[in-house]
User: Which sequence fits this backbone?
């Protein structure tokens, strides 16, 4: 609990969370009606803790803030744990989702995250620090993020795989 100036505990104080969120894309959609145009917004958001857990959220609303809030809630509900080996990934991986294709390669320490904007955001939210990634097709942010999730879900720990093969 957080205390106010007089030392009394505050019950309305927000709880500090280790989950970070990043807005990747906001789309404005217009509907023409009798009185003019009606705008609605959709938001694509990535949430993660930097320790291997990450989620993607997509929300639609008539206001930008409501769309972002809905997307963050959706992302927190859909968080997935990915296999990370130190600061990089265990092996190279490639995945396709609709028209988007993503190639992710392990890199040496100190390389940093070399990737396009949407793939980079996902990899940083997972907590990967040294990796090289390439978007091989498609520029739809939603499909790029889903292809990255698909690629990361293909990752397997080498030690666990070898132990399964032996025994």
Assistant:
């Amino acid at each position: 609990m957080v205390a106010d100036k007089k030392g009394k505990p505050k019950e309305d104080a927000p709880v500090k969370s280790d989950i970070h969120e990043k807005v990747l894309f906001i789309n404005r959609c217009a509907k023409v009606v009798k009185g003019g145009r009606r705008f609605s917004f959709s938001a694509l958001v990535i949430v993660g803790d930097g320790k291997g857990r990450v989620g993607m959220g997509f929300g639609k609303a008539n206001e930008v803030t409501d769309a972002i809030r809905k997307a963050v809630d959706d992302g927190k509900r859909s968080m997935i744990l990915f296999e990370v080996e130190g600061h990089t990934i265990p092996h190279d991986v490639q995945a396709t989702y609709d028209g988007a294709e993503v190639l992710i390669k392990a890199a040496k320490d100190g390389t940093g995250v070399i990737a396009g904007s949407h793939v980079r955001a996902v990899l940083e939210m997972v907590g990967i620090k040294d990796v090289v990634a390439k978007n091989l097709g498609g520029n739809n942010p939603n499909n790029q993020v889903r292809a990255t999730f698909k690629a990361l879900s293909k990752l397997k720990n080498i030690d666990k795989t070898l132990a399964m093969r032996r025994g």
Remarks:
- Residues 82-156 form a domain with the Ribosomal Protein S5; domain 2 fold (CATH 3.30.230.10).
- The helical segments are 64-77, 117-126, 141-153, 158-166.
- The chain has a mean pLDDT of 89.
